[in-house]
Amino acid sequence: MKVAIVTEEIDVGKIEALKNGTILISNAKEGLFVKTKEGILKVLEIQGENAKRMPIQDFLRGNKIEKSEIFE
């Protein structure tokens, strides 16, 4: 089974094999999606160290988080 998210497609069968914390989608238009133990987490806001909280789209316009990176 495949799940389509805007312009990205995620093969749900392959997601289960990924480590928790793996970045599935990361761009300013669609947002940030992370694989978790419970499923897929869509990040709405983020706060860097010593920074204000901001919408993830604004953060991704100025910072690069690569697809397939792993949050630890």
| Broad shape | elongated
Helix content: 10-25%
Distance N to C terminus: 28 Å
Tally of helical segments: 2
Mean pLDDT: 83
Number of strands: 7
CA-atom Rg in angstroms: 12 Å
What structural category do the secondary elements indicate? alpha+beta
The biggest beta sheet reads: 3 strands, antiparallel
Strand order of the largest sheet: 3-4-5
Strand content: 35-45%
Unreliable stretches, pLDDT < 50, 5 or more residues? 1-7
Along the chain, the helix and strand elements come as EEHEEEEEH
Overall description:
- With 72 residues, this protein is an alpha+beta fold.
- It is built from 2 helices and 7 strands.
- The strands form 3 sheets. A 3-stranded antiparallel sheet has the order 3-4-5, with helices on one face. Strands 1-2 form a two-stranded antiparallel ribbon.
- It is elongated and about 35 Å long.
What secondary-structure arrangement, pairings included, does this model have?
Layout: E1 2-5, E2 8-11, H1 12-15, E3 23-27, E4 31-36, E5 39-43, E6 45-47, E7 53-55, H2 56-62
Antiparallel strand pairs: 1-2, 3-4, 4-5, 6-7
Short précis:
The protein is of the alpha+beta class.
Task: Supply the key terms.
72 residues; alpha+beta; 3-stranded antiparallel sheet; two-stranded antiparallel sheet; 2 helices; elongated; disordered N terminus
